């Protein structure tokens, strides 16, 4: 039996000791485990290594129809990510291959990242750091002051596990939390102090807007010029989900015109962006992190544990124990 662990260098786990331990213990000491550092230029080499693999452990390697066609032995794709938009689910279903993202491992971490952006942008931390370290300017009054967080309305778009966690943490910190999510039953939101509103109301009345939506084909390019133009409060805009939710040039234009005050991004338009030439970088009112809000000692342990156990359970015919299986239902 062969398990292939493959991803872009930046997305690989710091080490693979725990993965090895769980896979070998669960599937047998003779289980072959191969580590392959993926790049787009090495696609053919990756497909060759995938050809005899029984399981693939990855996060961001695109698994399309061509990849499935080369994976003759593949039975499960275990994703150490919550998103699975990089996998052709229809093709996986045709071939009876399970797709299992980790459904829960970093909810609190990502919500903490959202709050870090909220306070960092409200307090102008990026502005001050650039002025102090690059321009050697020591001037508290150089940026235009913003209202304190407790006097601002926060609008959350996407009220799943992470959105709800962020909403709970904002209780008592902000003036009010409102939310929009077309898939959420509003009955379960009162306990966390969230007022569900129409999307247009949220865009018009929020001082801070946080995107926590899962990426689907229906919400790609969701944030466009029209929606930015509806943001009457000239809010802080924070994206904690996927870069594909945003039309980048429209966000740049909204920033340049002052329609948006400041931006916090845990993701950019691509998972591996061109940082030297990116139009959203080197701005005093934009904070960017490398899709790292999930990252903590606790979350990395859970990520490796759950994704490895999912492979073991699936291959041993214990599908009911797989943490999250998004197909073959």
Task: Give structural notes.
The protein has helices at residues 17-27, 43-50, 65-70, 89-95, 107-122, 125-135, 161-170, 199-205, 225-229, 248-257, 297-315, and strands spanning 2-8, 32-38, 55-58, 76-79, 98-101, 153-157, 176-180, 195-196, 208-211, 236-239, 262-265, 286-288. By secondary structure, it is an alpha/beta fold. Strand 9 (208-211), helix 9 (225-229) and strand 10 (236-239) form a beta-alpha-beta unit. 33% of the residues lie in helices and 16% in strands. The mean pLDDT is 95. The strands form 2 sheets. It has a 7-stranded parallel sheet with strand order 8-7-6-9-10-11-12, sandwiched between helices. Strands 2-1-3-4-5 form a 5-stranded parallel sheet, sandwiched between helices. It folds into 2 domains: 2-105 and 296-321, Rossmann fold; 107-288, NAD(P)-binding Rossmann-like Domain (Rossmann fold), CATH 3.40.50.720. The protein is built from 11 helices and 12 strands.
Give short descriptive properties of this protein.
about 325 residues, alpha/beta, Rossmann fold, 2 domains, 7-stranded parallel sheet, 5-stranded parallel sheet, 11 helices, about 35% helix, about 15% strand, globular
């Amino acid at each position: 039996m062969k398990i292939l662990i493959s991803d872009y260098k930046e997305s690989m786990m710091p080490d693979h000791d725990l993965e090895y331990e769980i896979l070998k213990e669960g599937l047998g000491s003779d289980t072959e485990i191969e580590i392959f550092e993926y790049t787009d230029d090495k696609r053919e080499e990756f497909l060759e290594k995938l050809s005899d693999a029984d399981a693939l452990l990855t996060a961001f390697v695109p698994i399309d129809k061509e990849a499935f066609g080369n994976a003759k032995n593949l039975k499960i794709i275990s994703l150490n990510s919550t998103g699975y938009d990089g996998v052709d689910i229809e093709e996986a279903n045709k071939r009876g291959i399970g797709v299992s993202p980790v459904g829960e491992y970093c909810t609190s971490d990502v919500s903490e990242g959202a709050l870090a952006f909220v306070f960092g942008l409200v307090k102008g931390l990026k502005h001050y750091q650039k002025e102090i370290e690059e321009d050697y300017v020591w001037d508290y009054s150089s940026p235009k002051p913003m209202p304190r967080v407790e006097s601002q309305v926060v609008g959350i778009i996407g009220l799943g596990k992470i959105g709800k966690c962020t909403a709970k943490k904002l209780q008592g910190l902000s003036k009010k939390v409102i939310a929009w999510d077309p898939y959420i039953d509003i009955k379960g939101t009162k306990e966390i102090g969230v007022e569900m509103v129409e999307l247009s109301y949220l865009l018009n009345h929020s001082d801070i807007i946080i995107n926590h939506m899962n990426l689907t084909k229906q919400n790609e390019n969701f944030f466009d010029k029209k929606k930015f133009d509806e943001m009457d409060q000239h809010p802080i805009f924070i994206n904690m989900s996927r870069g594909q939710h945003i039309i980048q040039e429209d966000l740049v234009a909204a920033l340049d015109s002052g329609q948006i005050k400041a931006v916090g991004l845990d993701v950019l338009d691509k998972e591996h962006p061109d940082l030297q030439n990116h139009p959203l970088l080197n701005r005093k009112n934009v904070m960017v992190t490398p899709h790292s809000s999930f990252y903590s000692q606790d979350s990395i342990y859970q990520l490796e544990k759950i994704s490895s156990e999912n492979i073991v359970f699936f291959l041993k015919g214990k599908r009911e124990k797989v943490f999250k299986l998004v197909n073959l239902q």
